Amino acid sequence: MKGLLGMAAVLAFAAACWTGAFHLTTWAFDWIAADPAPLTRQLATAFTGLLLMMFPPMVVGVVHRPREIARWTAALNAIRRIGKGDFGVRIDLGGARNRHHPFVGLADGINDMAAELGRLEQMRQAFISDVSHELQSPLTSIGGFAKAVRDDELSPDDRRRYLDIIALESDRLSRLSDDLLRLTALEAEGPELRREPFRLDAQLQRVILAAEPQWVAKGLDVEAQLEPNFLVADEALLERVWTNLVHNAVKFTPAGGRVLVRSWTRDGEAVVEIVDTGIGIALEDQPRVFERFFKADPSRNRDAGGSGLGLALAEKVVSLHGGRIGVRSAPGEGATFTVTLASAQSV
């Protein structure tokens, strides 16, 4: 409908210009007392009509050209500033909110791009800050205790204890590096999952047995309620998920506590729960537990030797499989982590 109205307006404007041109040339020839040939009169009318049609656009162009040049110059300057790393740039539309104007769409696109790049830059800086902080702590410990063991008067027991701390912090650095590499690889565009059928219950049982030295040393009661089922997924990546969750449950459950690992199939989905009777997680911290380096209690996590990346890795692996991971907890009442994955089948 708008197209038809626009075409009708153009035709009406052209007819008005040609009518005006006819009367204008007739008046001009009468004024100079000339009687040109019909062809000359028609050519004069046509030329005058063209001038009349071109005059309004020319006037509009002269009036609006400086404004248009200013707008496009602002867009080019904004792109140059973004290219130099200034993501706080924003193009002022100056009241031009005609959504059909090409500049409005370009300006909105540049503003959105700058805002998104600014958000990514903040994430990058925060990530670098977090990594630097996580590296600094074990490096400081290693450096301090390495200097201490040089003391010839140090007792053999203290020397062994210091060397154990150095070895522990070195292992922590190694885990941090490994987790960072894994998380970076998973977040790369288009990670390839090796989906194959395997026994989920058998995998969970292997993970629990692999953590046996830790939970036996703490005197924990570890129970497994595993329904036999098959799952089509990347077996190696999911084993890392269960390893992180089980180790966290063991790590944050005090001596004599209980850890329960159970799995079952529901409506074609595999559900895995890791339940512990540990210290729990505050309600306000639960939405952030899957963020990189987030620690509800930094001192507690540092003492436990965590990298701060285990749950972020778990969340990434589960999401790549199209699944869901969540937590229910309360301080002093333990925590329950639940993972739901599709493509499951009972045995």
Automatic annotation (TrEMBL):
Its EC number is 2.7.13.3. It holds the Pfam family HisKA. Keywords: Kinase, Membrane, Phosphoprotein, Transferase, Transmembrane, Transmembrane helix, Two-component regulatory system. CDD domains: HATPase_EvgS-ArcB-TorS-like, HisKA. It is an enzyme of class 2 (transferase). It catalyses: ATP + protein L-histidine = ADP + protein N-phospho-L-histidine. The keyword Protein transport does not apply. InterPro entries: HAMP_dom, HATPase_C_sf, HATPase_dom, His_kinase_dom, HisK_dim/P_dom, HisK_dim/P_sf, Sensor_HK_Regulatory, Sig_transdc_His_kin-like_C. The chain crosses the membrane at residues 43-63. GO terms for molecular function: phosphorelay sensor kinase activity. The keyword Transmembrane helix applies. GO terms for cellular component: membrane. Residues 130-345 form the Histidine kinase domain. Residues 77-122 form the HAMP domain. It is found in: Membrane. It comes from the Bacteria. This is histidine kinase.
